[in-house]
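Deadline looming. Please check this record:
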Amino acid sequence: MFVNPHNAPPPDLRIVDIGAVLPHETSDIQRSSPLIARLQEADHFTNPPLVAPAADGRFVLMDGSNRHASLRALDFPHILVQIVDYASGMVELGVWQHVVAEWAAASLRHGLEKLPGAEITAAADTSAIASFSLRDGASFGIRAPGDSLRERNAALRTVVDTYHCRATLYRTALTEPTRAWALFPKALALVTFPIYQPQDIIAAALQRAYLPPGISRHIIHGRALNLRYPMQQLRADLPLQAKNRQLADWLHAQFARRSVRYYAEATYQFDE
């Protein structure tokens, strides 16, 4: 289904039980630890996580796993989310590639060779769960020990763990190594991943067969950003229905004050 992104509908914003939101990837401790401290002191909740409805009334987290994990760590019973159905035509699902920098290529290769059950194969192997292109020109793939979703995703987590905490990791949309070397002078490897389908993301969440952080890439047309919703209302000891009435009143006021603007063009943000 194709929907013109220049006519994206207003965002479907709701407050839901935090336990009903299921991640499809592990959270990034490097990013969530400082986020917990910021959210604990924050006056406003700025960017709601994006979720897709699942068949059983729960929601699959598409983007925002660190915000979700941080609020769970702070014992929030509810979370403000934006709901977007995969079938709406407003979701593009892709992948982030990884640029591995400031580490030794020999250490990377040695770590991958020690992975239990994983097999180093040709870079062009279509069954590879990850493909590596090194700055020195070498290339290879990694094959999982089995074909099930749980086996493939578990193996992929061990692959990313090999460099995640030892090297500097950048996410990129680039797939051409020479362009990555130009943009990241200290890079030693470009890691590329296969394309995933919505059913892969939903299955990973429902089966708890999590992907590593920073691989799935959801582009949402009509994404809500910079809400500045009062954290006091999100923290309040109120029933879920009452919180959603407050949210609806707050949204009506924002539109009435013309505080909401829709930008249809692709943008780069320099304030992250």
In short: The chain has a mean pLDDT of 92. Helices lie at 29-41, 65-73, 105-113, 149-164, 177-183, 198-206, 231-235, 240-256.
